[in-house]
Amino acid sequence: MTTKFTDRLWKSVAPVWAKTHQHPFVTGLGDGTLPVESFKYYMKQDYVYLIDYAKMFALASTKAYDLTTSAKFAGLQEATLNGEMELHRQYAERFGISREELEATKPSFVMLAYTSYMLRVAHQGSLAELVSSLLPCTWSYWEIGKHLAKVEGALEHELYGEWVRMYSSDEFGQLAIWLIDVMNELADGKNEQELARLEEHFLYTTKMEYMFWDMAYRKEMWPCEIN
Ligand SMILES: Cc1ncc(CN)c(N)n1
To answer: How many separate domains does the chain show?
Structure first.
């Protein structure tokens, strides 16, 4: 059996993913112990994160080598803006947060560092580099969603159940699988130096995913002495 490039990626981030599954934000989404204030904070930061993330798909669409792939990336941008972000708008409504307030969320340091890194790669690097930097976002959420769906009561939880249902859904899984396949296609024929660069992007953004959970759990912004 031939190993895929994404098997190598999986192996390189396995310790970080293991830690992510143990993080109290993630475990709290599953067993319902996550403090609501941390979740509200997360929703707002994630909303502005997704505005930038959707731009990654738009940039991927312009860099794609064929029409089918270009159209698929354009579809992912649309799905992010009007599908995934609708979840956030609905949660915000439940919390009494207006759409304007949601959109005007000031970015935390971690959120800004994460999206700035991805957008820099997207503007300066190849399509393969772009995909390697955005892949942890979709892939890790699907992994977390599948994990949490197995926790008793998680899918039905009155607050966090909707989140678990979205990220464990087949529909979301299909997006992750498509991106994984594209990553393998793009990695095909690349030399070791190029593959190592893709792995590095993947590792950095995987670590930033972990930091995003941690930042949200602690409702961290910028160091207080410079605020
Ligand atoms: C930070 C983050 N990473 C990933 C996802 C899943 N698209 C998300 N909504 N937010």
So the answer is: 1
